[in-house]
Structure formats: structure tokens, C-alpha cells
């Protein structure tokens, strides 16, 4: 049996343990026992003995190949210009470890502004509500994407929340300016050193 096929077959039996995302002591010891079991079975069934390190590395490579195949397939789907129909990636691996292929989603990205309706969170508080447009810093030199400038999300929020958003946006902008200034100064120092 081929090395990769044998590895897939053996790993399938222990998949729930070796692909567990937990890293506590108990789980890690279970993972170690599972990998030792896979290694022992592999050596029994294979013509050539391989180290546990080689087997784990091959398993990582198999997962990376599956991810690359899926990524290439997604890229091919969104290409324009016609051409032959794209071939779907083999699903055997994506079905085997589906959590590896789930895209993370965070409704609050690193520079996003929360747009939750806070008026329903606590019925005991009186909130002065009004329709507002998403608050962005008015500084013209901030690098905001065209999409972000043009997109307006209407949300119901309190005045206190608007003030917090404005304050946080201004703080973030000040931090970015300070960071850019520091980078600029470092570049200037490096250029000065190169001249000498």
C-alpha cells in the first residue's frame, strides 16, 4: 500500500484525538499515545520503517496539500474568461478533518467598529436613541478603503456609545500616526547611516 494512503487510513482511526484542538496535559498524552499507535501500526504494515517524526511531517504535508488544492479550486471558480470547467478538489480529506477547512469569521475585524444594537441589552437603562451613520475619523490622510468610505451602516446606538466610538477612533488614529512617524524616523536614521 502507498505511504500516503496507508497513513490516511491509519490516521482516520485516531482522527478525533490527533486533530483535537485542545492542548491540555490529558489531551496531549492521548495524542502522543495515538501517534505512537499509528507509528507502530505503520511500521507493521509498511515495507519501509519510518520515524514518528517523518510520519507526523507527512501528515502535515497531506493537510497542506489538501488546503492548497481547495484554495486553488476557489481561485479557479472566481476567474473570468471562460475556459474549461474547474475540477473539484478531492473531498476525502476535507471530510476527514472538516475543522481544518473552516474559514474564521469575526464580525469585528482589527479596525472595525461594532454596530450592535445596544438598546435591547439592558431594559433597566434609559437610552437616548437616534439613527446614526457609522462613525469614522474625519482625518483626510487616514488610509480608509474606498469601500469603507462609501459604505454606510445605519444603527441605533446611545449617545454614550457614540462618544466611546469617536474617542476610540481618535485614539486609534493617533496611535497610527505615532507609529508612522516612528517608522519614518527610523527610515531617515537608516538613510543617514548609509550615507556615512
From TrEMBL:
<comment type="function">
    <text>Involved in transvection phenomena (= synapsis-dependent gene expression), where the synaptic pairing of chromosomes carrying genes with which zeste interacts influences the expression of these genes. Zeste binds to DNA and stimulates transcription from a nearby promoter.</text>
</comment>
<feature type="domain" description="Myb/SANT-like DNA-binding">
    <location>
        <begin position="7"/>
        <end position="70"/>
    </location>
</feature>
<keyword id="KW-0804">Transcription</keyword>
<feature type="region of interest" description="Disordered">
    <location>
        <begin position="137"/>
        <end position="158"/>
    </location>
</feature>
<comment type="subunit">
    <text>Self-associates forming complexes of several hundred monomers.</text>
</comment>
<keyword id="KW-0805">Transcription regulation</keyword>
<dbReference type="Pfam" id="PF13873">
    <property type="entry name" value="Myb_DNA-bind_5"/>
</dbReference>
<protein>
    <recommendedName>
        <fullName>Regulatory protein zeste</fullName>
    </recommendedName>
</protein>
<dbReference type="InterPro" id="IPR028002">
    <property type="entry name" value="Myb_DNA-bind_5"/>
</dbReference>
Amino acid at each position: 500500500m502507498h505511504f500516503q494512503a496507508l497513513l490516511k487510513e491509519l490516521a482516520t482511526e485516531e482522527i478525533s484525538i490527533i486533530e483535537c484542538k485542545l492542548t491540555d496535559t490529558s489531551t496531549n498524552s492521548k495524542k502522543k499515545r495515538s501517534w505512537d499507535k499509528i507509528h507502530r501500526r505503520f511500521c507493521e504494515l509498511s515495507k519501509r520503517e519510518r520515524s514518528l517524526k517523518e510520519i507526523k511531517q507527512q501528515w502535515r504535508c497531506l493537510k497542506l496539500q489538501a488546503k492548497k488544492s481547495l484554495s486553488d479550486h476557489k481561485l479557479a471558480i472566481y476567474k473570468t474568461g471562460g475556459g474549461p470547467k474547474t475540477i473539484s478538489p478531492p473531498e476525502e480529506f476535507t471530510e476527514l478533518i472538516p475543522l481544518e477547512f473552516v474559514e474564521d469569521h469575526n464580525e469585528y475585524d482589527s479596525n472595525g467598529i461594532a454596530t450592535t444594537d445596544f438598546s435591547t441589552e439592558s431594559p433597566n437603562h434609559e437610552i437616548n436613541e437616534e439613527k446614526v451613520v457609522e462613525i469614522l475619523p474625519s482625518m483626510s490622510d487616514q488610509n480608509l478603503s474606498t469601500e469603507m468610505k462609501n459604505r454606510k451602516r445605519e444603527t441605533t446606538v446611545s449617545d454614550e456609545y457614540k462618544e466611546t466610538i469617536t474617542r476610540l477612533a481618535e485614539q486609534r488614529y493617533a496611535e497610527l500616526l505615532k507609529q508612522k512617524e516612528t517608522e519614518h524616523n527610523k527610515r531617515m536614521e537608516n538613510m543617514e547611516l548609509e550615507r556615512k
